[in-house]
Structure formats: C-alpha cells, structure tokens
Design goal:
five-stranded mixed beta barrel, alpha/beta, 28 helices
C-alpha cells in the first residue's frame, strides 16, 4: 500500500500560511453551511491540504468562501462517480468545517483550493441555502469536539510515536512518496496533528476513514489508525517481496519476449487473424517512393507504434503521424497537359480581357511545357478585389492539367500555420502548405496563396518569414515541416500568390515573387464578363435554364454605371443576382415576367440608381479641381476645394482626414504659389488679407500620398484668381518647391476611374508617358493626355481666362 495523491488533491506545494484563530471568519451557522464535495478524500481537523476543484460549482463555492471569509463544510461522496451530488444521502454523515486560505489558478486552466480543516461535525439535515445562495449544496450540521486523553496517560504518547514511525517506514520504502508530507510528519510534535495528518493521507477506503473521523476520542482514533497502518505495512512488504521474486526469475530478454508474445496473441484475437495497423502501414509504405531519409524515419516511428498499447492515447497520436506521412504524395507526379493551344483556349474561355496577364502566364506555361524539370518562378497577382485573381489561379491549374489547392493566408498570425506544429504539442498538425500538398495528392499541383498581403505577425512568430523558404526555388526542394519532420520537395509545385496591395508585404518576400498587376475592367469588358460568365453562373445557381432569361447588353451597362462603383465585378454579380431573385419572386407570385430584360426594366428590379455615371461636378466654382487617386480597390476621383476667408493669412487650414504626405503637398503648393504670384498675376497682398482653407471631401475616408500636388496648386490659383477650371479635366502628379512635376503610380487605375466619371482630359507628368503607352488603346479611348514637366504648364492647361459665374470681390 502506497501513500499516493488522492483524486481531489493537487500537486501544488503548500507554502507558509498564517493559520491561527479565524478572527476575521464569519461565524458558523450550524443550520446552514455551504458544502464542498470531494471524491475519495476525507479530511481531518487541523490538516491543511490542496484540493483540486474540478467542478464549476466547487470552484464558485471556494472562491466565494475565500472572498467572504466564510467557513465551508468538506464532505466526501459515497460514490465518487456521482458528478453532481445534491442530497444528504450522497455523502457520508461526518465531515469537517474548513477555511479556504487561497484559490490558485494553474497554467493548465485547472484550479486548486488550499483549505485548512477546523472542527468535526455530523450532518443532521439539508441547509436552507441562505448563507451562500450561489452554492449548490448546503447542510445543517452539529459540531463535535475531539476528546483528548488525560494528561497523565502514558500509553497515548507511545501509540502516537508508533504511528509516526510506522508511517515514515512505509513512506521511505515507497517510490514517489510525497516529500512535503514526510517533512511535515518528521517535524510535527503535536499528537493530534500527527494522528489527523496520517489519517488524512492513509491509503484506505473512504468508509474506513469515516470510522476514524466518527471517533471523537483521540486515543481510540489513534488505536484504530495504528491497526490500519499495520495492515498497510504488511501489504507493502508482501508487494515488495513479489516484485523482487519476479525480477529475479525473469530476465529482461525473457520479459520482452513474453510481452511481445502476449501482444501478438492479443492482436490476433482482436483482429481475427487480420493484419494489425502496423503491418497495414508497412504494406502502404512499400508502395510509396520515399526518400532514403524519409524511409528511415518511417521505419523508426513504426517500431514505436508496435511497442505501444492500442488503448493508450499515445497510440492514436503516433498512428495519426504515420498516416500523415503515408498520405503525402512522395515523388508522385501527375501527367500535365502538353497541348499549348488547349491551354490558351482554357485561359481565354475562363477570363475575358486581362490580355497582358494571360500573356505572361502563357509564357510560364510554355516554359514549363518545354522544360518540365525547370524551376518555376513564383507569380504574385496584384489588383483590387473582384478582378479575378483567385479564379485566374484555378484557370492556370486547369490549363496545365494540374491539381489545384487554395491556401487562405488572410489574418494569419502564427508561424506554425506555415511550418506546422511540433509533435510534442497536443493537437499538433502539419502546416497549411504540406496539408495542401496532401489534399492535392500530387507533388506538382498549383497552390494558390490567397491574400498574402493580409499576413500579420505577433508573439507567435512571423508567417511571412516562414514563407521565404516556401517561395524560394533554391530552398523549397528541402522544405522542412515541423510536424512531418522530414524534408519534402516543393520544387515541382507552382505557387501563385494574390494580393490587393504590395505595401504590406515584407521586402524579402516580395523579392522572391514576380509581380503581375491586374487593374480594373472598363465598361465594355464588364458587360462581356457578365454576359459570358456571371449570368450563366447565376442562372445555374438559381436552377434556371440558360434560355430562361436574357439580359440585354444595354441593361447590363445600366447596372454597371448606375448601381456599381468598383474596379472588379463583385458588386455587378450581386446586382445581377438581385435581378434574378426578383424575377424568381415574380414567377412564384404568378406575375408576368419579361423573358428579355431591357434597360428600362432595371429600375423596377434594383430601385433608384446608387451612382451617377457622370460624377463630374462641373466647373462653376472657383478653387474646385478634380484629382485622381489610387486605392486598394482601384482608382477613384477626388475633389480638391480651396476657399478664402478674411484674416491675417497666417494659417493654412487642411481638412478631409489627410495624411502627413498629403499635408506636406498642400504646404509645398501654397509656398510655390506665394513665391510665384507674379507669374500667375496674383496680388501678393491677398496672402496677408485672407486665410486659405483646403478641403478634400469624404472626410471619413483617410487620404494620403503625393499625387494630389498639382491638383492642390491648381485649386489655390483658381481660388485666388476666381477663374474657371477647364471643363472635364482631371490631373495627378507630385510637385516640388522648384515647380517640377514628378511621376506617380497607379496610372491605369486612375485612367479607368476618370473614364467612369466622364473625364475627357488628363494632366500628368511627362515621365508617366511610358505608363500611358503601355496601356492598351481601348482603355485610353475617349481621353486626351497632357504631359507636363513644370507647374506653370499645368496652370496653362487647366485654367481658363473665364471668371466663374459669381466671382468673389477681394478688398
């Protein structure tokens, strides 16, 4: 018999607690005391012990008792399997009152209460629950005091010394005996404390301990305890003798052979002569093209599986790991499409437009068809939402005849999601890259790394750093996943990443990818995409035949112009879905539905238009100039407004939620106009008499960047001269204090935004001419471009000599 930890006790070490008279304790109400139930633990008076709080009600009772300095009753359950004991018959009739000294929250999300037992009691009935309503169990008790022997009793001290000696003898011959119990017992000289401490820790049945607790005479309790200890010591001796004899008769080799024979017999009985899990896995492994290092690891781990008991938790963990290794497509290469014409047709059928993007992808497909063993570069498709980045990745896989898997990286913060978790952790699993290869069932799939720009980093590591190995063709042939723990060859995988912006990508990661820009679609392209792809797809999703509905091109154009404002086609798809839902509703309501939806019908289905195609607001006001901006969702137009108010001209006021770079552009613009007032025929005294206020509408949206520089200069000059800006003209460009106009980015997106807004002329830097020449002619149709190098050229193109309709008169 060993003195082992009870079910309800914890391994928390008890430090020094100030256990004196409970001066600040709430007096015990014998008619109502909250109960803390225990399993297989009977506590005796004067003993301080940690108790594990496994039930929510026990945790609540302990916390409240500690907080309110309220005594509780410790009662042992008769049946430890009862999860929620409530009635008195569930407990033994004797227990102890106790004080909760502390409640400890452990790192593994468990809780322990340090309690100090006070007095014995007998349960006389259920409590009324008024003292602590939050507790589930209450009892009415009768306190019983221990009866000490007479002071001249010479037999009692000898009995206690025998109890102490026998207990220490048992503990010293027991492996894993609690050290704190031995220490406390050695140093205790209080007879009552020794008896109760040993009785609490005694490894006997709970009913035996209750008989000890029921005995109010300490001497009688000591005699009963001494009898129990004698039995325990004899059992410990017998057990020790059996172990020694067994070890002497059976050698280690005999023991191993015996156990192996027994396990084989058991497996045969369980499986009915069939192969066990290990043998089945060995057969699978013989059919797999492992690397030599991989096969060595597998054989070693398989032997570990054979030595484990199938009923143990470690067996399932080991089995899952081996099954993961066997499920990976080791050197399994799927045959690819060798017909380049078919690949081109597949891309053209799946995506309308995007000619330059498809050309670059076809170049890569051609190279891989010509030299399959070559290393494929990592492509990164960058563009606003809804332009077809994700679907393009799927089309590439279909064109090449490869398997396709998508890995979503948006919101990823944990490096282990890429590299996998080490198997020492509970619930460990491989990383997303290896998992995607496993799901593909091929070593040469196309894996789309979606939303790579949304990766974050925190205390768990930086996933983008882990991706460096994945996306480097020189390194990914030996990619090491922490879970698999075997190098895996990813060099045959074609990785395609997608992103809305490159600004959030780490530079080392960006250097490993070839960036392909996907800008927005023009009106004609959106109409064709809706006709070829979106409408057939939506009809199928709504269980309608392809000829059940026809939407005229003019109606689609109306939806694009009046109900969407985007570079892609997601809002367009939602609007078309709404039209189809309305049609189905009318059909189900037995209303007449036109088979052909014309432009005039769109308002009936979608309501009042949300946007005006021509958002240009005219040139009737001085100081209002149209600029062009780039955003993550495509290009936009913005207005720069300048107004003058009487004052001392000491302050430039900027509003509209502007960033630091944009504020600096405004200050540069004002300083340039001041220093060149004579060039623009502006009275220099106006700067001393009037304050200048520059505002960019839609103040809830943050705005930043240098590209509004020439727009701000034009706005300030127009406001000071009270002259009109040329009609339907927009501009973009950075400025310097010397008056130079510098190039900016996002030109294609800005041009598409200008066309959507009805702009016909655009002013931009001479250095942006190459960007315009690189854009297809259909995107430039209807636009005139003015290339400038200096600010005076901008003013010459942008401003007219005509005053506004109601010019302001300056003093």
């Amino acid at each position: 018999m060993d003195f082992q930890k009870k079910d309800n006790t914890s391994t928390v070490t008890i430090g020094e607690f100030n256990i004196g008279e409970p001066d600040n304790m709430v007096p015990i109400d014998p008619n109502d005391i909250p109960v803390l139930p225990t399993r297989n633990l009977v506590l005796f008076p004067g003993v301080t012990l940690p108790i594990s709080l496994g039930r929510e009600n026990s945790l609540t009772t302990a916390r409240l008792a500690n907080k309110r300095h309220m005594p509780i009753a410790i009662l042992c359950q008769k049946n430890p399997d009862t999860e929620h004991p409530t009635v008195p018959s569930d407990f033994y009739e004797y227990g102890v009152t106790a004080e909760v000294l502390r409640v400890i929250d452990l790192p593994d999300d468990t809780h322990t209460a340090i309690v100090h037992a006070r007095d014995r009691f007998e349960v006389v009935g259920p409590g009324n629950g008024f003292v602590m309503p939050e507790a589930r169990i209450h009892a009415a008790i009768k306190i019983q005091k221990d009866s000490n022997p007479r002071s001249n009793d010479k037999e009692f001290p000898q009995i206690v010394r025998n109890i102490k000696d026998i207990t220490l003898d048992i503990l010293e011959s027991t492996a894993g005996a609690p050290e704190d119990f031995i220490f406390n017992l050695r140093n205790s000289e209080d007879f009552a404390n020794i008896i109760n401490l040993v009785a609490t820790q005694l490894p006997v049945k709970s009913e035996n301990k209750i008989r000890l607790l029921r005995q109010h005479k300490l001497k009688e309790r000591a005699l009963m305890l001494l009898s129990e200890l004698a039995v325990s010591r004899e059992l410990a001796k017998i057990q020790h003798t059996i172990i020694e004899r067994t070890q002497a008769n059976i050698s280690e080799q005999q023991r191993a052979n015996f156990l192996q024979h027994q396990m084989d017999t058991i497996r045969q009985e369980l499986n009915g002569g069939d192969l066990d899990d290990a043998d089945k896995m060995l057969q699978r492994a013989n059919e797999i093209g492992f690397t030599p290092a991989g096969r060595q690891v597998f054989d070693r781990e398989l032997e570990k599986l054979r030595r484990l008991n199938p009923q143990s938790p470690d067996y399932s963990v080991q089995y899952t790991y081996l099954d993961t290794i066997l499920s990976l497509p080791w050197n399994k290469i799927d045959p690819e499409n060798k017909d380049f014409t078919l690949a081109r047709e597949t891309l053209d059928n799946d995506h309308f437009g995007l000619e330059k993007v498809k050309e670059r992808i076809l170049e890569q497909i051609a190279v891989l068809m010509n030299y399959p063993e070559g290393k494929a570069p990592i492509l990164c498709l960058v563009g606003p939402p809804g332009v077809g980045k994700t679907s393009l990745g799927h089309s590439v896989a279909k064109a090449m005849g490869r398997k396709y898997q998508r890995v979503s990286l948006g919101g990823l913060h944990d490096e282990a999601e890429i590299r996998g978790h080490r198997r020492t952790y509970i619930g460990a699993m491989p990383g997303r890259i290896i998992d995607a290869v496993k799901r593909a069932g091929s070593s040469n799939p196309v894996i789309l790394l979606d939303e790579i720009d949304k990766i974050g980093a925190d205390f768990k590591g930086d996933p983008s750093a882990a991706l460096l190995e994945v996306l480097d063709p020189e390194q990914n042939c030996h990619f090491h996943d922490n879970y698999v723990d075997i190098d895996y060859d990813l060099s045959k995988v074609l990785f395609i990443a997608t992103a809305n912006t490159l600004s959030t990508l780490a530079q080392p990661l960006l250097d490993r990818m070839e960036v392909i820009d996907l800008s927005g679609y023009i009106l004609e392209e959106k109409v064709e995409i809706a006709r070829r792809h979106l409408i057939p797809k939506l009809l199928k999703e709504h269980n309608l035949s392809p000829d059940a509905l026809t939407i005229e091109p003019e109606a689609i154009a109306k939806i694009v112009e009046s109900y969407t404002s985007e570079s892609g086609v997601r809002q367009l798809e939602k609007a078309l879905a709404k039209v189809i839902r309305k049609i189905i509703l009318k059909k189900m309501s037995s209303e007449d539905v036109p088979s052909v939806i014309a432009e005039k019908d769109i308002v009936d289905f979608l309501g009042t238009p949300k946007f005006n195609r021509d958002r240009y607001e005219g040139n009737d006001f001085a100081g209002v100039v149209t600029g062009l901006a780039w955003t993550a969702v495509g290009g936009e137009i913005l207005y720069i407004e300048t107004s003058l108010s009487e004052g001392k001209g000491e302050k430039l006021m900027l509003t509209g939620n502007l960033g630091n770079v944009m504020k600096e552009s405004a200050m540069i613009a004002l300083e340039y106009v001041k220093s060149h007032a004579d060039l623009f025929n502006i009275d220099l005294s106006l700067f001393d008499k009037y304050n200048i206020h520059i505002h960019v509408p839609e103040g809830a949206i943050p705005k930043d960047g240098p590209s509004a520089g020439i727009t701000m200069v034009t706005s300030i000059v127009s406001a000071l001269k009270q002259c009109k800006v040329k009609e339907r003209i927009a501009m973009t460009g950075e400025i310097t204090l010397r008056g130079k106009v510098l190039p900016v980015g996002g030109i294609k997106e800005k041009i598409l935004a200008a066309k959507r807004a009805g702009i016909t002329e655009i002013i931009l830097s001479e250095d942006n001419r190459k960007d315009i020449d690189d854009i297809e002619a259909r995107y430039r149709d209807g636009l005139s471009f003015h290339y400038v190098r200096t600010i005076p050229e901008v003013i010459e193109y942008a401003l007219t000599a005509e005053p506004v309709s109601s010019p302001r008169k300056f003093k």
